[in-house]
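Quick start: read one record
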Amino acid sequence: MKADVPAGAPGLRERKKLKTRRAIQHHALRLIAEQGYDQTTVEQIAAAAEVSPSTFFRYYPTKEDVVLADDYDPLFYQAVLDRPADEKPLVALHSAMMALMPQFAAEAGEDTRQRLRLVLSVPALRGKIIQGVAESTRAIATALAERAGRDTPRYTDEAVAAAYIGVASVAVLRWAESPETLDPAALLEEGIAALRAGS
């Protein structure tokens, strides 16, 4: 008998693609840690992941992208859309993010910490992460607008999204940089509490 597949669960093809994507990123981070960012080539990464360079570029347009990319922005966008329409924007963002934190905690191991540390240490990547934060902010502001039945974000959507993404980014980077074992969800709760208190 064929097992039931939960509604919304990714199919076999999608799971294989995600596995390949993560394998490429894992080997990229390993090689970069061993050799340095500039010394590591796409060809080396592809060979380590047992894929062709053309397959690498199907998943990651550039070497920078293999370090910067993660799978959480689309999940966060959808989680925001799924929040009740009458919920205040900051509450909706925080509730959506906290609903995703168990998955992040389960999947965000040493590769994620290494990736974030690398972003901070390579100048070319630091510039890209600023662009990525701006893109995430626009996407989440759009989700807030869509959730409220508007076609385009208002300034207030953008302001709330920017404040929340800023706090979340600081929490994740603090988690990645710390030599201690910190809880990213607890850091985020602390940061949002400070934002609400205005302190």
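Residues 123-147 form the longest helix (25 residues).
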